[in-house]
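User: Predict the structure for this protein chain, please.
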Amino acid sequence: MNAVERVWVVDEYFLMPDQGKPDDRILMILDWLHPGLVASDIRILTKAHDEINEEMLQLFQLREREINQLQARRPKQCSIQVNTRLKVGFDFIHDRFAILDDELWHFGATVGGFHASVNAASRGWCAIDSGAIEFFEMAWDKCKGK
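Assistant: Here is the predicted structure, written as structure tokens:
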């Protein structure tokens, strides 16, 4: 919510709640990506779920347009991309993590603390020094559609 450059998420179940409807989860995530968001590079790498249709994913594009229209003079246009090909193109990720600006966050259950059971998150690693940015970009490229 307070990122100024990037918000990158890797979590195969980020859009799927353990209870309730996916619509509710997506609306909560969109609340985090509020119209006054400063970060310009938002990427979510997850896997496809039958319960999440293209119409739901289009809500991210609508939010992108809303951010860019509200902040017409921002130095860089906001881009929100959701890639649902995680397990199709790159099946080497078990953990869930996020990169906020240049800081690496690691999550025990789901990014954002969505899981109903006790779980933990840790943060504070340099995403550049740890290689997380390079790794994310590699995974993102491997999961692009053909």
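The first strand starts at residue 6 and ends at 10.
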